[in-house]
Design brief:
- The protein has 76 residues and is mainly α.
- It has a domain at 16-68: lambda repressor-like DNA-binding domains (434 Repressor (Amino-terminal Domain)), CATH 1.10.260.40.
- The protein has helices spanning 15-25, 30-37, 41-48, 56-66, 70-74.
- The two termini are 19 Å apart.
Length: 76
């Protein structure tokens, strides 16, 4: 069940949730994705746990590594 906004009850989309889903669909480990995107595995892990908000440049790197548009990561 998707997470819901506590104010308006709409579904809440987290970049980390989308990132993890797309990474696992591509059969990549966090380390492999980090290497393809030029990031550290710790950075990928923090984003997937929704502990870090990725900068636009980081979103572009991750999207490129996953062969998707950045909008796919932010749920657009």
């Amino acid at each position: 069940m998707p997470r819901r906004c506590t104010v308006c009850d709409h579904p809440v989309v987290y970049v980390g949730d989308n990132l993890k889903r797309l990474r696992t669909l591509n059969a990549l480990t966090q380390e492999e994705l980090a290497d393809k995107a030029g990031l550290t595995p710790a950075a990928v892990a923090r984003i997937e746990r929704n502990e870090a908000e990725p900068r636009p440049s980081t979103l572009r790197k991750l999207a490129s590594a996953l062969d998707v548009k950045p909008a796919k990561l932010v749920g657009e």
